[in-house]
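Pair request: fold both.
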Amino acid sequence: MQKPMTPHHPKAYTDPQRPAGTRQALARRRSNRPRARGGQRRRKKTSSSSATTTTSTPQTAPPAPPVIKKARPTKIEIPEIIAVRDLAQLTQTNPIEIIKILMSYGTMATINELIDIDTATIVGEELGIAVGRETLAEPEVEAGAESPKTLRERLLEMEKDDSKLQSRPPVVTVLGHVDHGKTTLLDAIRDTNVVAGESGGITQHIAAYQVTVGDNKITFLDTPGHAAFTAMRARGAQATDIAILVIAADDGVMPQTREAIAHAQAARVPILVALNKIDKDNANPDHVKQQLADMGLQPEEWGGETTIVPLSAKKRINIDELLENVLLVTDVMDLKANPEGEAIGTVIEAKQDRHLGNVATVLVQRGTLHQGDSVVIGQVWGRIRSLINDLGEAIKEATPAMPVIVSGLHGVPSAGDIFQVVENDKIARQIAQERIDKSRELATPRRSLSLDDLYSQIQSGEVKDLNLIIKADVQGSLEPIINSLNDLSNDEVQIRILHQDVGAITESDVMLATASRALILGFHAKVDTVAQRQAEANGVDIQIYDVIYRLIDDMSKAMTGMLEPIYEEKRIGTAEVRAIFRIRGQGQVLGCLVQDGVIRRDAIARVSRHGTEYYNGHITSLKRYQEDVPEIRMGYECGLSISGLDKPQEGDIVETYEKVRVR
């Protein structure tokens, strides 16, 4: 005989909103789970043993105190994603029991692991608990209180009060070609041996460090290259104040050096050049300076504005001079931030830690971040459980330009995501959920810029700068293209060549175009397969040409579309008012004779009397006898109405025209 269902039976609860196919799939998964051998016999044996033990117990022994267990809920509501620990707390269940259920379904999870609502529903069915999606109500706002502010509103509000602004350390990003000594330079600055811990001596991660130089502090971002630097820019994070370009004196300007220069210039940050490895016998600093001058980075000793510091990171030569130049540029920039209020900043990197769970390295840019703050980072939210500085020390708060590692997040954010502190966990969870829902609705990629919709984007108020990335097959083709494009610039529209090089269009070119909203123009240049896929995903427009004049002609047309339009009046025809009729429901109707040209129903009418214009308006109706017509030619009579015309007279002249865009 079949046993009756208990409240904890897996099939005791069936969510009416769950699709039948999903319930059947879960049922099949349960039926396919292996059962323990001899389970019934062991249960009977245990029962018998229990009975024997009870019989042998002396009658005089006091009864054991009753164990009071907190009743499990019959129904819970959870967000889209929840940690195993939080699910155990909501269901009044031991976390180990939930982990065992997940293991039985082939999911290996830890107590800090995040699971989605579908997986949590399966666990709830095993426990006999109905699991539903949490409905987030609007946050309660007291009478007279302001609604939650957006990130931009918070930044503007923080920068509004000059009395609260204080000087902050600069944030410096180190860029350059591989193996030119970027990490070795930071190693010399921090006086630590970071390189020894890297795989093959090449940086494998993004890290942030803060060093003290005299009475000042400088924050350094050590990146694996300009790709990560631009990836953060592509997400809207402008976290860098100064870029240090590391170039080996014995190697010179390399392809990745050119790309790093292009990315730094696109970000509009000052560039300091660290001319490394000058201690080598084959070092040629003058050759490197000439290469930089050819790229527009004129050295100061040659009358330019680019500071070039010759140094040796390995032998600790001229490191102090480089830091002094960083502080000098900082004094000129006068960097300030408001340390008061809720913190706002950028994620440098994020990962899952075995001991701390989900962690993120963040750079505080405004306000002060405290332990226990509720934060929302992109589509992730959480409460700050701990703050750890770059020395591995636990701290209570982080001020502007300070990098810290935070824990307590309900997910792993992406590098470049903006974090902000909100009032409480409820609002943080709600904002994150709204962003998740919005990202699902807007699944299509963001369009960057294309020749087809260039004019419409300019009309909507975009900046009138045309950013271009030029790739050609040979240097001889590249130079005339650049010269011709520069000639197209004028006072109203500027062409900015972000990057120019010889070779195929690569993934780095697409990433730069994504971050800078640029067009990629290729002349006899191939497109890498990876770059093509990335361009399609990010909406980057790549145009390939085989004739130079066609490239220049297309760009000239785009420039015409970018200029402010100029309209001229084109005369269409004139008519003389012979009679005036007042018709109920239509107002005044002018009986006219077309003297020359045509009178169109969609034209603009200029009404004059004795040679003086006294009214200008649109024609609202045009009729030939009782029929509506689109136009009336010379020599014919018509009846027309002009919107807003008051007190017309016989003998008035109606001149029609249209505005034609001439540029």
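--- second member of the pair ---
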Amino acid sequence: MSETPNNVQYTEDNIRSLDWKEHIRLRPGMYIGKLGDGSSADDGIYVLVKEIMDNSIDEHMMGHGKAIDIKISDHRVEVRDYGRGIPLGKVIDCVSKINTGGKYDSGAFQKSVGLNGVGTKATNALSNYFKVQSFRDGKTKWAEFKQGELTAESVDGESTNAKNGTHIAFEPDNTIFKNYHFIPQYLDNLFWNYAYLNAGLSINFNGQKYFSQKGLHDLLSKKTNEEENRYPIIHLRGNDIEIAMTHGNQYGEEYYSFVNGQNTTQGGTHLQAFREALVRTVRDFYKKDYAPEDVRSSIVAAVAIRVQEPVFESQTKTKLGSNTMSPDSSSQTVRSFIGDFIKTELDNFLHKNPVVAEAIKKRIEQSERERKDIAGIKKLANDRAKKANLHNKKLRDCRIHRTDEKSDDRYSSMLFITEGDSASGSITKSRNVQTQAVFSLRGKPLNCFGLTKKIVYENEEFNLLQHALNIEDGLDGLRYEKIIISTDADVDGMHIRLLMMTFFLQFFPDLVRNGHLYILETPLFRVRNKKETRYCYSDEERQKAIKDLGPKPEITRFKGLGEISPEEFGKFIGDNIRLEPVILEKDTTIPKILNYYMGKNTPDRQKFIIENLIIEKDPAEFAA
């Protein structure tokens, strides 16, 4: 037997089998995607919530239960549905035996989300505390677990007066989800999506009711400003399919896609089929060979289908891989199913609504004119960018990118956008060169509010940034999972932050909507004595540090990133990095928010600043 380079023999003793709990805890990414701290909408703690919710939604879809109650505090989640309840003899098995569940019986769950019996078990294994209780026909059974291990259970068949259904409570394991916190806006969006896709279902979350009567029509009503849409929302429904769409005045394409109630944030075969079918139907109706990008420019659409035993490209179910509507070899393909529906229903709608048909035609032709208007400058700018990319001094790239599908770290890739050389120097010296890239601005970027996309190509800095991100033709080629605006904590830094947010919201709003834009939080204060150093991100943290460290500690106020040494900076962009996601509230439209902050309403902004002004004291005063 040969020995490995480190002189450790490879024998039968090196081979071991993990039980289900150990495997989930050792390789959580295989089951719930990335871990994260809750700052991204697809972080693991939200996947845990979804895995439990999906079971309750499946019960509702099968006609059992019209309400779901949810309570979420800082670190505890409780979900109570009013479905049939887990069969009492299988309560423990359903949450602790891998590949055990009712979803394998296609008669019981024809078109459910959860199919492989893993989700609830993953939630159990990744929780410090997990409790399941079933209420069924006047009897109840409960069991408690810690990290997947059974710790307590009730006697079988205790009597109860509670309504049928299932109650699950859990607390994510803080040794796996470090420093995690639930962001209310992400939960709000999650529960609204459940409501839109299940018209008539009441979801009660922390005292707020989520309810929809018109399904995807309601979703687009929330996501768009109907007064600014080019035409009223088109809402089409059929067996196993629902579509809503309109065109606005924004740049890019905006889609919300779902399969069996699951928000497929990365799209898949159904979304691609819709995009293709839309172009074909529009071309046939107007009898003109419009360019696909002109037909889809400024579109906002929601697509939901139901598929028997769908195949997703990962356990987190964010991208549909199914090509057929059911496992049956003779089943219709997803592409033809959606294509036939759009060809029939949208064509009929356009014939019956000539005013809408004319509005769509005008929007397409406007996009065509805009595209041709910038074609010349676009070519020149792209040629310049290609030459610059060979020796782009603004970009200090990393080795692993979001587009590297074979890399486990692809979703850890991030780009820091910094102001000036001093800040970029600190980050560059302390970054992880595998996953962290730096793009350096040379000062304050242009305020692009109200300008056309032509400026993206005419402005060298914007054009180089666009190429660094690879987002000219949409998000499919986005090279970094997180784009992080990293500016000084002073007036100029805040202004640059606003200008960069304006750039992304104006020209690449889908990048913001899909949760890729963040603000880097760096400490405002360093408080230390001879034994300990504390970094404080707020005045409250500073005051606590002063109290904990005793009399007259040394206090340093950080205003610029360049003031922080590379050695120190490495602590703030590593495992303990603090990021503030840029989130669009559901009732906020981009034109309104940009006009308020970047438009010509100076008196309104001045009044807001005066009413919210905080005068900061010098840290030396507090240390005195």
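Observation on the second member. The first helix runs from residue 20 to 26.
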